[in-house]
Design goal:
heterodimer; A: 269 residues; mainly beta; Immunoglobulin-like; four-stranded antiparallel β-sheet; 2 helices; 43% strand; B: 769 residues; Maltoporin, Chain A; five-stranded antiparallel β-sheet; 52 strands; 4% helix
């Protein structure tokens, strides 16, 4: 929970019964659809996946407009170009990408109208999970929700920070093979340089769940992007803004090279 | 010392008259029933038309050629007194005014000097009578001078129910809030719903929206000077109130009659006690309260010396098992008034002030906690020199040592270790000023002065230089006590009044102010975690230049008071967080700050009825407030959040009978400038809003009507009590506090309006004996 979320709850508590929420219809201006590029390269396996979609109006139906007919190319640090193929509408994949720690990879996306979008990302160091720690949450006294039957858990991930380098991490989780979205568990080594690190995944799990924890090592721009994303999805108290990203030409989204380690646990019922 | 000063001043002022034998009438003006000194009270010499105003300690001094004079003493709401003097020697005359009973030896004239607003040199100033403010209906019956100020032109509230305020389009941190000369860094309780000022302990409030006298410095948009009561000099007195969410108690009385007095005032809310039944299980053991404690004592050591000690302590506490949150201010002021002569008044002040907050989240054995604070140590001297009837000089100096402790962040098991994420900042702020209020003719009076301010960063500190990616490219470490950076500011201040006739005047002012401390806020509502930072080699001092022009007129024998003022203010070196910047757990805070400028301008119209059974006012502000930051909206000018085009307040109080008084207040203002989404897209499996330009949209317009009634249950010499009823938001207008954009249950996007207060009735019982 972010600080302002807690403050938000406190505000609601303070005003008690008096506050109320209602749905309103606002006359919002609509922007021109903008290209959204989500591009990630797994430096471990050498596989890259790029999805191209378009933004739409706030009150438009939730449907993804997939962008087809684009060309996607990644240039390795040694100058080798890897051309991506289209896997499905709006999904492009590339394989055999060589990315050593510190290598800067660049991506070029050209849409069917010839507009070019570029970004760079630096390959981070590798990381491995030392252990997962399960903490069963107390019922009744706690402030967390959930049914009365299942046990509730918090999952902590423990790992060793690489010494002598600035590091950025993200912990992701899948529950029964479904990725938890809109949860950003981020960590940097600013205060824990070279130390053993540990973070709880910022959500709770129920007994019986199969949880796969993914620990990602990412570069700084990607970290900032995720951090921005998480802060605008909070309680809404901060001045809203669009996340700072690494693409040019007004494209939304990001390009990031990452390394990851995974560990799976089945939570006791 | 005093001789030296005198000769220096005479050298500087060759126009001083020496031709005749001159004598001085001086003394203090007090409230006859309590012995409280009257501030800004008026003394007029009828024969010459010259006059004086009492200073912040109730002292006045007028120098006249030998002769016979009629001197009139007056103060708003009290019966004026006239005295005939045959001036052949210096005369000491302490005067006590009363609201009712009269002294047989003196002639009483009621309310003749009610045109102070026309004749004084003050432009852009709001003076509040704390007693009058008590009749205006308020949220939950909790009287609050800050909320009354928000009903004045040019002063707007931060948000619904908030005691935070903006003055003439300036930011919240640009208001200098002084409580008995001690700066208050966070004047709000309960996340802004109540201010730290307990009306029971207060005597006088003055807000300068512009044209600040040279004695004030350190903030660019306004000065709010709050003075606590000294305590009853005559007899012991207990007063208090029982309200729905808080109770107050004040005890005051003489330490030694007419020599010294003491006042102790306390207030505590019990929201937690009341809220408990409604709270979810997890919060049932929650703490949720604040308290205030004011203390003031003073003692006259002799004819010429008086000592004042005053203090404030207030704290907010929130918490449950899993998290805790508390913050508060502490101020202490020690003052020594000394009369060097009947013309030279001095005050020496020693001030301590701090504001700090702490925050803790505990999850299992792991916890995160952080704390932050700002600590001030301040020494200053102020002099008033009543040179002659046409010249009153003020001068003084101050040094203020600031310690700013940005967030100290602790992470790990059982609060094992403490990691300081940011260096403590230390700084020395200084100021010297001199000003003169000079009467050039019967019609023209000008108060002109200059303030020289200085600011120096003191080590030890590690200064960092950042590149465009916010990476540290170099750092320099300065030793303990080393001054590594200094700023100087020359701040001219001019106020002029030109009397058009007996009942109208034109006034103009120019002021230039420097501000060396800045508040960084990444929320729109203003939270206790907003962070104060000092100017540094990277962060330049804020500068404001403001001009204002006003027309003042009284009607119907001073029953009505009208004013119209226009102003233009430009703001340099404004600071803000870049998008996504945060002061929490941020080692490289300065790299997240962006710099820009601002401009605000507007028209303020005010009409007040001061006398009769029906009193009240209408205030209207037409204004614009804009900012420009290179990193925001591609560097184009955009509306500040508090840019409210129209802001209207109407207040009425009607004395129905001796026992009943009714009141009402209505406010309407243009919705705040905010940022709304202009589209949406998917990223990382989640839906994300695409936002438009910063502050390009508007919240819905705000309006609200409150009603109040006060019934005096008992009023005799021994005991007074009243019941005060108020209904906040009588027609239950659901004003938007916040608009959120999210998915509904069906997966469609929607906008949700959050409104805080519907209709809120309350009752308070007040007593005094």
């Amino acid at each position: 929970m972010k600080l302002y979320q807690i403050i938000g709850i406190l505000i609601l508590l303070t005003v008690g019964m008096s506050s109320c929420e209602e749905i309103i219809e606002l006359d919002l201006s609509n922007s021109e659809p903008r290209l959204v590029i989500e591009a990630a390269v797994d430096a471990e396996s050498g596989a890259g996946i790029v999805s191209l979609t378009k933004s739409n109006g706030f009150y438009d139906p939730i449907s993804l407009e997939l962008v087809t007919g684009a060309t996607v190319t990644i240039t390795q640090a040694d100058g080798t170009e890897i051309a991506f193929g289209s896997l499905a509408d709006g999904i492009y994949i590339g394989t055999g990408i060589v990315a050593e720690e510190g290598d800067v990879l660049s991506i070029l996306v050209v849409d069917s109208e010839g507009n070019e979008y570029k970004a760079n990302s630096t390959t981070p160091h590798s990381v491995s999970i030392d252990s997962l720690e399960l903490i069963e949450l107390e019922r009744g006294g706690g402030s967390f929700g959930g049914g009365d039957e299942e046990k509730l858990y918090q999952v902590f991930t423990h790992w060793q920070d690489k010494a002598g380098t600035e590091s950025f991490y993200r912990v992701r989780a899948t529950v029964n093979d479904t990725l938890k979205t809109n949860v950003y568990t981020l960590a940097d080594d600013l205060l824990e340089e070279g130390e053993a690190m540990s973070r709880p995944f910022f959500d709770i799990f129920e007994g019986g769940d199969t949880v796969e924890i993914q620990l990602l090592s990412i570069d700084k721009p990607t970290y900032i992007y995720y951090d921005n994303l998480s802060s605008i999805q909070g309680f809404g108290s901060s001045t809203p803004f669009n996340p700072k990203n690494n693409f040019d030409n007004n494209a939304l989204g990001y390009f990031g090279v990452f390394r990851l380690d995974t560990e799976t646990v089945i939570l006791p019922e | 010392m005093s001789k030296y000063l005198k000769s220096l001043l005479f050298l500087m002022l060759p126009f001083a008259a020496f031709s005749q034998e001159n004598y001085t009438i001086s003394g203090y003006m007090r409230d006859g029933s309590t012995g409280e000194e009257l501030l800004y009270a008026t003394v007029v010499v009828k024969e010459t038309g010259s006059g004086a105003t009492t200073n912040l300690y109730g002292f006045y001094s007028i120098t006249l050629p030998a002769g016979k004079y009629t001197v009139q003493y007056s103060y708003i709401g009290m019966q004026a007194q006239e005295m005939v003097v045959d001036l052949k020697a210096d005369l000491k005359k302490d005067v006590e005014l009363t609201s009712g009973a009269t002294d047989l030896n003196e002639i009483v004239i009621e309310g003749e000097k009610d045109d102070e607003n026309i004749t004084n040199t003050e432009v852009s100033v709001v003076t509040l009578d704390v007693k009058d403010a008590k009749l205006i209906p308020v949220l939950l019956g909790e009287q609050d001078i800050l909320k009354t100020l928000q009903l004045m032109p040019g002063v707007s509230s931060n948000s619904e129910g908030s005691s935070g305020f903006f003055v003439r389009g300036g930011d919240a941190d640009q208001n200098l809030i002084l409580l008995d000369e001690a700066p208050v860094y966070n004047a709000s309780h309960l996340l802004g719903f109540f201010s730290v000022f307990n009306s029971d302990a207060l005597k006088d409030v003055k807000l300068y929206k512009g044209g600040m006298p040279a004695e004030y410095g350190g903030r660019v948009s306004s000065v709010m000077d709050v003075r606590m009561k000294n305590g009853n000099m005559k007899e012991w007195n207990v007063s208090g109130g029982l309200g729905l969410i808080s109770s107050r108690l004040t005890v005051e009385g003489p330490i030694q009659k007419d020599k010294g007095s003491i006042i102790v005032s306390g207030r505590r809310t019990y929201a937690d006690v009341l809220a408990k039944p409604f709270l979810e299980d997890g919060f049932s053991d929650a703490d949720l309260y604040f308290y205030d404690f004011n203390l003031k004592a003073n003692y006259k050591i002799g004819e010429k010396d008086r000592i004042y000690l005053s203090g404030y302590l207030g704290r907010d506490v929130f918490g449950t098992d899993n998290f805790g949150f508390n913050w508060g201010n502490t101020t202490g002021t020690l003052r020594w008034n000394h009369l060097f002569s009947d013309k030279l008044f001095s005050n020496t002040t020693l001030v301590y002030s701090d504001y700090d907050y702490g925050f803790k989240v505990q999850a299992g054995n792991n916890g995160i906690s952080l704390s932050s604070g700002i600590y001030d140590y301040n020494l200053k001297q102020d002099y008033n020199y009543y040179l002659n009837p046409n010249n009153t000089l003020s001068f003084g100096w101050l040094v203020n040592y600031h310690r700013l402790k940005p967030s100290t962040f602790t992470i790990g098991e059982e609060e094992a270790e403490e990691d300081e994420t940011q260096d403590e900042q230390k700084a020395l702020e200084g100021g010297f000023y001199i000003s003169n209020e000079q009467k050039f003719s019967d019609k023209l009076t000008i108060n002109y002065g200059v303030r020289l301010s200085t600011f120096s960063n003191v080590g030890e500190y590690t200064e960092k230089v950042y590149n465009e990616f916010d990476d540290v490219i170099s750092s320099t470490t300065y030793g303990s006590g080393e001054i590594y950076n200094s700023y100087y500011g020359l701040e001219p201040r001019v106020n002029a009044t030109y009397l058009l006739n007996n009942s109208s005047s034109l006034k103009a002012s120019y002021n230039r102010n420097y501000q060396y401390l800045h508040l960084l806020s990444n929320s729109t509502s203003g939270t206790p975690t907003d962070l104060w930072i000092a100017s540094s080699p990277l962060v330049k001092p804020q500068i404001a230049n403001q001009v204002a022009l006003g027309y003042f007129r009284n009607f119907n024998n001073n029953t009505y008071e009208f004013s119209a003022e226009t102003y233009y203010k430009n703001l340099e070196n404004q600071v803000d967080f870049e998008d996504g910047g945060s002061g929490v757990n941020n080692l490289d805070l300065e790299s997240d700050i962006v710099f820009g400028k601002g401009r605000t301008y507007g028209l303020e119209v005010f009409l007040k009825k001061k006398k009769g059974d029906f009193t009240g006012w209408i205030s209207y502000t037409l204004a614009k407030s804009e900012r420009q930051f290179e990193a925001i909206n591609d560097g184009s000018w955009f509306s500040a959040r508090q840019d409210r085009t129209h802001d209207i307040s109407i207040v009425g109080v009607y004395q129905l009978s001796p026992k009943w008084s009714l009141s009402a207040s209505f406010v309407y203002y243009t919705g705040d400038a905010v940022t709304f989404p202009i589209g949406k897209y998917f990223i990382d499996g989640g839906l994300v809003n695409l936002y438009g330009d910063r502050n390009a949209d508007r919240m819905p317009n705000y309006h609200r009507l409150d009603l109040g009634a006060t019934y005096i249950v008992k009023d005799n010499d021994k005991f007074y009590s009243d019941l005060s009823f108020s209904i906040y938001n009588i027609y239950n207008q659901r004003n938007a506090y916040q608009i959120n954009f999210a998915l509904d249950d069906t997966g469609a996007t929607q906008a949700t309006k959050l409104s805080l207060f519907g209709i809120v009735p309350s009752i308070t019982w007040n007593f005094n004996f």
